Structures are given as structure tokens and as C-alpha cells.
Amino acid sequence: MRAIVLTYHSHNIAGGEYHANDHVALASDLRTITGAGARIVSLEAIVDAMSGAPPGDDRTMVGLSFDDGPIFDYADFVHPRFGPQRGFLNILRDFSAGEGGRAQPDLHATSFVIASPEARAQMERAEDCGYTFLEDWLADSWWKAAAQSGLMDIGNHSWDHVHHAVGSTAITAPERDNFELVDNYVDADREIRRATALIESLTGRRCTLFAFPFGHSNRYLVDEYLPTRKFEHGMKGAFGVAPRAIAPGDSIWNIPRLVCGFHWKTPDELKRLLHAA
Q1: Separation CA 66–CA 194 (nearest Å)
Q2: Which of 34, 76, 108, 157 is 20–30 Å from 92 (CA)?
Q3: What does the buried/exposed string (b/e) look like for 133-150 if buried means 16 or more CB atoms within 10 Å of the residue's CB?
Q4: pLDDT digit string, tens, across residues 44-58
């Protein structure tokens, strides 16, 4: 199989150009992916193919993922500096409603959200998170509708992201912004299983995919907790961050993802990544 997973952040808006705005980039990239002859599939389909399921055909599979769960993944909004922004889900709908719907019948994305309402509320108020002018921009009110759209799943991005803006995180270590610190059963259960339970209760659908905050993983999570505790946390696969496509032998518990604005910044750079895949 040939596959690559791309990651976008809908709160990454620093201008109106491709390299500075993930909304602009996503709309452009859907056309680039299609023009390259690749097919967009769900992340779950990629996990299934890595686990031995037939990939369907020999075209490169492309998975789309969105991180952190801002409401901008779902809804349009007006940025006070850079004007109207089309929500990620509406970008997918726009593409599907045109020729893209015929070219990409399996169009799909996963939005990885932070579960804890308290953590999200504190991140909303943090200056360095960038959106203190907007209320409820990390709300969960849109999760169920997005999960029912047919174009988006809601995935698990941990309980609290071990984020520095959160007053009290679920893990026992005092340090922040490092998910590698989740290296024991108690902390993993709090950060992953508990998040799954809340997400499922709010969406009414199963949550089966996890994305490591910051792309940080460790051997305990990848080799022990995630594969041996599936009956508890319910995950089928987990995604990290790495500047490459999926390679033979990659673990379904640390699938590489490339990040828009970091691993590629132009349509031509994305074309080269797709070709390399």
C-alpha cells in the first residue's frame, strides 16, 4: 500500500495566503491531491489497510486530519484581521458538491479534539492560544453534527493535551507540553480512555482513533498500553508526526503524519510529497 496522512490546524490563520492560512491550504490541497491521481480515504481505512485489509486499488491513499478541535473545523467565522474564513467541513462540502465529489467519492477527514471541558475553557482564555476575542471557540456543541455529516469523524486528542494553559492536568508529572510523560497505566487511562468515553457520550458514535498531542509518543504507549489495552480504550490506531509517508513496518500505534505549514508550505511541495509517497 502507498499512503500519506496530512494534518491541518484550523486555528492557524496568520494571513490570507496559502503558507499562512490552513483554510486556504486545505481548499487548494484537495485539488492538488486529486490532480496527482491520489484518492482521499478515511483514516480508519488507512489503519485497516495497514492491518492487512485490501486497499481497494493501487493509487496512493491520502488521509486528512485536523488537530485540537476548534469550532473552525466545523463552522465558518469572521477573523477580526483576516476576514471571513470557510470552516474545514464546509470546505470539504464545497469540494464534494463539485467535480471533487465524483473524483473523490470517499472524501473524509478526522477532527482530533481535546476532551476535557475544563481544559478547553482554560485554553480559550489563554492569550497565546490566539482567540481570546471569541467565546466558545473550543466548544463541543458541534461534535455530534460533524460526526453525522458523513464527511468527518471525531477523534481522540487526549483529555487535556498536557497543555501549559491548563491549571491542573490529568497526569501525575508536573511538567507540561510533553505527552511523552504519559508513561504509565494510570496517566494513559486518564488521558486516553477517559477522553474516549466523553467523546462517545457527546457524539453518540464510536471514537476509534487517537492522535498524540504535539506528536509526542513513547515506547510504553506505542508498544504496551495502546496495543494491549484495546478492550479498555477502544482505539484501532494512533497517529504521531513525522516528515514522511507511511512506510512498510510502521506501527498502527504511531502512524506518521505531515503537518501543513511545517512539512510543506506550497502546493508544489505537496505535489513532491505525494509523488514521493
Answers
A1: 21
A2: 157
A3: ebeebbbbebbeebbebe
A4: 999 999 999 988 888
Residue tagged 490506531 (cell numbers): 237
Grid cell in block for residue 34: 486529486
How far is residue 260 from each of residues 5, 73, 90, 129, 215, measured CA to CA in Å? Answer: 11, 15, 19, 18, 14
Residues 27/98, Cβ–Cβ less than 8 Å? no
What are the beta bridge partners of residue 131? none
Third-level CATH fold of 3-276: TIM Barrel (3.20.20)
Three-state helix/strand/coil letters over 142-184: CHHHHHCCCCEEEEECCCCCCCCCCCCCCCCCCCCCCHHHCCC
The average confidence (pLDDT) of the chain is: 97
Q: What is the pTM of this model?
A: 0.97
Domain range annotation of the chain = 3-276
Map grid coordinates 478515511 to a residue. Answer: 42
Q: How confident is the model at residue 212 (pLDDT cuts 50, 70, 90)?
A: very high
CA distance 167 to 144: 27
pLDDT at 99: 86
